[in-house]
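STRUCTURE:
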């Protein structure tokens, strides 16, 4: 389960950020929205030094903060080389102030130390202090106690989120497809296969135990847009409605995801389930979907990765969402849903903030889900 905690100042936030991202951010700017004394959305931006690129990225990132109704922004600059963040940092700070956002904390992190820059006139020297150790930061202590350690880089995180394809199994699945003789399944059998993949128990039988023919059925089923949409809708309550798919497809998707405790725990006007209530189960299901993607030939993996991204986005994990969508587009640059979701993610749109679909939003007995 992901611990939740709040840092007390910018130096503690600098220690917390790698734990929240899952990796050390490398040369970058990290912006955190302030709502009073509470932190909100966090953005990580690669460092740039071209003046026009600095201005454009600064305007874009601050516009997202304004849309989030932030009252201020904390600016953390992670540097490898002294001064490497200065042009971008200045552009972001100027854009924030021009938008009416306070910048109460503005620090540079380098070589295990934290610099609070002095005044622009140079008469006030920067304040320098060592970053606190993780175990000394109350906001980070829950991560340390849980055994969570950030990876060294985003590249390492990508390798863990999207592991290399199992070429032997993928070739076996491809041979089944080429033969034109996959295992025929009826609706109930398809739901049972997906129920196996979406089993939220850590003790569940590995996805890799399924024979190649059944993996081919699973991967191929997501090429059916109605089935894909129905499955994504039930896995992320409130993301979008099941009303746009046939009734029988919606019921089938609900059956397939019935073991996921967040899927069928609300009715009609009940409050939507919060992903944080089911962190452990969500991680298990997400991992099993990744395992499925690893066993399939590449043409079948993008939509599985989009499904992983969809689930991560609903759970509030923008980093994992972006990694999966980027990988899906590497494999299939024409994947329209991956492209759309990545564009929405880049603009800071939250899935639950999308406009609701028109029409009634019925309860469980008629398949519907609030959008």
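SEQUENCE:
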């Amino acid at each position: 389960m992901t611990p939740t905690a709040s840092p007390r100042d910018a130096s503690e936030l600098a220690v917390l950020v790698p734990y929240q991202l899952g990796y050390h951010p490398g040369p970058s700017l990290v912006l955190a929205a302030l709502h009073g004394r509470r932190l909100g959305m966090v953005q990580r931006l690669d460092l740039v030094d071209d003046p026009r690129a600095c201005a454009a990225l600064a305007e874009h990132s601050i516009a997202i903060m304004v849309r989030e109704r932030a009252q201020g922004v904390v600016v953390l600059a992670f540097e490898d080389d002294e001064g490497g963040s200065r042009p971008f940092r200045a552009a972001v700070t100027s854009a924030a102030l021009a938008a009416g956002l306070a910048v109460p904390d503005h620090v540079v992190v380098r070589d295990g130390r934290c610099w609070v820059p002095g005044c622009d006139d140079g008469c006030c020297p920067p304040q320098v202090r060592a970053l606190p150790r993780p175990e000394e930061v109350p906001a980070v202590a829950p991560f340390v106690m849980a055994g969570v350690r950030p990876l060294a880089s985003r590249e390492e995180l990508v390798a863990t989120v999207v592991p290399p394809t199992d070429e032997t199994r993928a070739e076996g699945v491809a041979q089944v497809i080429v033969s034109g003789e996959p295992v025929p399944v009826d609706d109930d059998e398809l739901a049972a296969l997906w129920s196996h993949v979406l089993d939220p128990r850590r003790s569940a039988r590995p996805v890799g135990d399924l024979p190649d023919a059944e993996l081919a059925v699973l991967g191929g089923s997501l090429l059916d847009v109605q089935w894909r949409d129905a499955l994504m809708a039930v896995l992320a309550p409130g993301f979008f409605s099941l009303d746009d798919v046939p009734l029988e497809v919606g019921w089938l998707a609900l059956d397939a995801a019935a073991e996921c405790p967040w899927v069928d725990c609300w009715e009609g006007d009940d409050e939507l389930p919060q992903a944080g209530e089911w962190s452990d189960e969500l991680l298990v299901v997400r991992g099993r979907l990744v395992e499925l993607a690893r066993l399939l030939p590449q043409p079948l993996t993008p939509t599985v990765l989009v499904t992983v991204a969809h689930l991560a986005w609903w759970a509030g994990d923008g980093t994992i969402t972006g990694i999966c969508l980027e990988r899906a587009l590497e494999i299939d640059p024409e994947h329209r849903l991956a492209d759309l979701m990545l564009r929405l993610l880049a603009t800071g749109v939250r899935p639950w903030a999308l406009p609701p679909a028109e029409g009634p939003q019925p309860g469980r007995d008629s398949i519907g889900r609030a959008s």
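REMARK: The CA atoms of residues 80 and 111 lie 8 Å apart.
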